[in-house]
Amino acid sequence: MIWNEKAECMSREDMAELQLKKLQDVVKRAYENIPYYHKKYKELNIHPNDIQSLEDIEKLPFTTKDDLREGYPFGMFAVPSREIIEVHSSSGTTGKPVVSGYTRKDIDCWSELVARGLTMMGIDENDIIQNTHGYGLFTGGFGVHYGSHKIGSIVIPISTGQSRRQIEIMKDFGTTVVIFTPSYGMYLAELAKEEGFDSKDINLKAIGFGAEMWTEEMRQEIQTRFGAPAYNIYGLTELMGPGIAVECSAQDGLHISEDYVYPEIIDPKTGKTLEENKNGELVLTNLEREGMPLIRFRTKDITSINRQSCQCGRNTARMERITGRTDDMIKVKGVAVFPSQIEKALLKVNNIEPHYQIIVTRPHLMDEIEVKVEASEDLFSDEVKEMINIKKKIEDYIENEIGLRVKVTLVEPKSIPRSEGKAIRVIDKRNLH
Amino acid sequence: MIWNEKAECMSREDMAELQLKKLQDVVKRAYENIPYYHKKYKELNIHPNDIQSLEDIEKLPFTTKDDLREGYPFGMFAVPSREIIEVHSSSGTTGKPVVSGYTRKDIDCWSELVARGLTMMGIDENDIIQNTHGYGLFTGGFGVHYGSHKIGSIVIPISTGQSRRQIEIMKDFGTTVVIFTPSYGMYLAELAKEEGFDSKDINLKAIGFGAEMWTEEMRQEIQTRFGAPAYNIYGLTELMGPGIAVECSAQDGLHISEDYVYPEIIDPKTGKTLEENKNGELVLTNLEREGMPLIRFRTKDITSINRQSCQCGRNTARMERITGRTDDMIKVKGVAVFPSQIEKALLKVNNIEPHYQIIVTRPHLMDEIEVKVEASEDLFSDEVKEMINIKKKIEDYIENEIGLRVKVTLVEPKSIPRSEGKAIRVIDKRNLH
């Protein structure tokens, strides 16, 4: 089923025409109502009338997270605050928090985005969605909550934590869909096993992954453990929240709701727009948003875009799964390393658990990467020789993936802290020296 | 302003007529669609047609929390689960959890209840509500969230925790309304003081108290510390959630939305209905709910009801603040003691902080109550003699309130654990012997 056939199956030409109209409108609204854009466009001698084609968007400057921080708290709002009905905020761990504001129509648009996405995952009003994303200032929990309301499925707003109870509720309530971060999903699978029942006994129809990077290998692992297909949900608080792009049953890229957000891929160094299928930084523009429309927001997420029709019948552009972020790339001995590459290598090895941490140090003025990986219970009781073999195998696979030799440490099962949200994968100790 | 003048200012006669019609309808729906009610009414030889007047409700048996537990998880639903769009649940710490189910109309009714309540507190679309109640399976956070959406104010869904950030956000976002449990409010006031600014500097218009028992003295204390009026919000997950009854600006009892819930007061021992203004256990009946209508649910909360018109212009019945729960009454040496009585006594004494715990022991086959109270910073650096005086003073006040001599221990400032939700006030160690 397709939630909004008109929007999702529109021809590329009609979509481009619609996008141009909306882009002209949003640039005008931003210019007239948001002092930040007004000032910046004036300085650069840009006027809304300069947008005569979609390509003209390249004339506009980027908006960055730092720009949003400068507007803290409500400086980026395009409407008087009495028209705002909800605000969210990023955590602010790396500086002043970023605030995101929503009018009533924005919340409805957000619900629509997620409704489309849940429908792509095969979910309808007969489903029971256990939403383990946290509710709060962060947008995690609310996107799925609003989308579930829109399509009429049952939402269990359990949020993160109480992990044993999560499993009990999956069984007792007959949960058919569970939404989690991949790392929390792995933790729940592990707990379920401890509690003595096979996670496949829960009759899951779909799993939604959000808020974390992951590899195809992690998807396979989770799908096997839960016996259900897992779909990627992408989004970010600044632009709206989770649901901006979601995978369909083809599991071949995430459909972007292009009538709501306009995607571009740029070279993160030069800022130049890249062509289809080229890997680069995702840049998004809100086409419909009233409360806080962002224009050319640099997401820092690395992906590519494909505008081919999908086998599911939708014509919206698809983005690849995020393979890294421009700011969680680790530069080691001059080589760019993404945690996702390490994960990919790890998941090829038997007898280890997919729990890992990457520790970067600079002991003798030279960068070193250590990867802590958990041995499986079986392995840990086996011969030491076997452990050395596995360790070497992992080092080989990783070297193969990233082109660098790293040190691998096998640690005791269950000794790597389990996340109840986003996993902490990288510990960079170099700044401490 | 009154949110729904028709419903809230209706004459007592019209209300009674409306309630009878709705009561007849809900009893019929429960009888026909909920196996629990069908079976019970059959056994007692009751038929929906027996309800010919509001008084006839007394013919119907009570519903208890245990009945709901037996129906776990979805046994009390009156509609097919595809019509349910959201479920909540009590924590289940004292047995099987209780599940509460909502149709789309139920969520809308809940929003309406809270919209009325927020309006009673003087809140409108210009306000910014910082909602510190937790979102999750418990209904705490969602009631205010939905109500705020209804009236169009801004909701900051920050939920509980991150207490320093709460204060920062109050300042930065210009919060005008904060919703908290009284004990969490006290904690925030304390933190704000530590952070070096007077909590009165936050330009608060109203405070909403929920989910916890408190005394008039606690209200005064919080009002002084935050420089804003504090209003009581009552509700429970089984019946819907917070918002069933809310205080208006008169601060003279909580207006019950009587077109949605029918209130009775009973003698908790005999089950007999008590007359107006008599103290007893509150019993509530859902008049409008589709998903899980409860009939004569025993709330265990002790209060009284007053049907006089209020000076605010509303004609709905008002309940007194909850003074205790039938199950948190402590029986000591045959005397019934409620924590609220102890709190009332404590708040009369200067130089102590309103943080306390009540510890019940049975050292020599005789019950003893110890009350741990924090001394203020000033007091703690003063003479020991002064401390002894205060201790005696508190013991006197409590004896005066409950008729029993208890042992009071003054402890170091900030040594009683602060709650980030409901405070743990009573520690009963008698079962350990």
Structure write-up:
The structure is a homodimer of 433-residue chains. Chain A has 433 residues and is an alpha/beta fold. Chain A has a domain of 103 residues: GMP Synthetase, Chain A, domain 3. Chain A contains 12 helices and 21 strands. In chain A, the strands form 5 sheets. In chain A, strands 4-3-5-6-7-8-9-14-13 form a 9-stranded mixed beta sheet, with helices on both faces. In chain A, strands 10-11-12-15 form a 4-stranded antiparallel beta sheet. In chain A, helix 5 packs across helix 6 and helix 8 packs parallel to helix 9. The longest helix of chain A is centred in the N-terminal third of the chain and has 22 residues. The radius of gyration of chain A is 22 Å and the shape is globular. The mean pLDDT of chain A is 88. Chains A and B meet through strand 1, helix 6, strand 4 and helix 7 of A and strand 1, helix 6, strand 4 and helix 7 of B.
